[in-house]
Amino acid sequence: MSKIDAVRAAMVEAMKAKDKARKDSLSMLLSALKNAEINKREPLTEEEENAVVKKEIKQTQETYEMAPADREDIRSEAAARMAVYKEFAPEDMSEEQIREVISAVLSEMGIENPTAKDKGAIMKVLMPRVKGKADGRLVNETLASMFR
Known about the structure:
- InterPro entries: Asn/Gln_tRNA_amidoTrase-B-like, GatB_Yqey_C_2, YqeY/Aim41, YqeY/Aim41_N.
- This is GatB/YqeY domain-containing protein.
- There is one protein chain.
- It contains 7 helices and no strands.
- By secondary structure, the protein is mainly alpha-helical.
- The chain folds into 2 domains: 85 residues, Orthogonal Bundle (Hypothetical Protein Yqey, Chain: A, domain1), CATH 1.10.1510; 52 residues, Arc Repressor Mutant, subunit A, CATH 1.10.10.
- It is elongated and about 60 Å long.
- The relative contact order is 0.10.
C-alpha cells in the first residue's frame, strides 16, 4: 500500500470520527504527496514518499519554532500536525546504526584514523547511503565525534 493510499484511508477514518484537526493534517499531507507525484508525472517510490513526509515534518517544525511565544494556538496546531505526520514517517537510523555505516565507509576508503581533512570525501560517500534514513545533522555530528 502506497503512502497516498495509507494517508487517504487514515483521512477517511478521521472524517468518520469527526476529528477535524487530524483530518486537516492528513489532507495537507495527502496534498503534498499528490503534488510531488504530479510533478514527477509517475507514481512515487517509497523513498520519494518518505522524503515528502520528512519535508512536511521539517516545515511544520520550522513553523512551530518561528511562531511567537504568545501565539500558543499556532504552536499547538503545528505540534498536533507534526504528531500526525510522524505516524507516516520512516524510522530514523539511531546513532549506533549511523556509526556502523560510517565504519563501513571508512574501511572501504581505507581510512583508519579519520581527520577533519578527510571529512568532505567521507561525507560524499556516506550521505547517499543514509539519505532519507537519518538526519543529516546527526550524521555530521557523529562523524565529527570520530575525529581525533
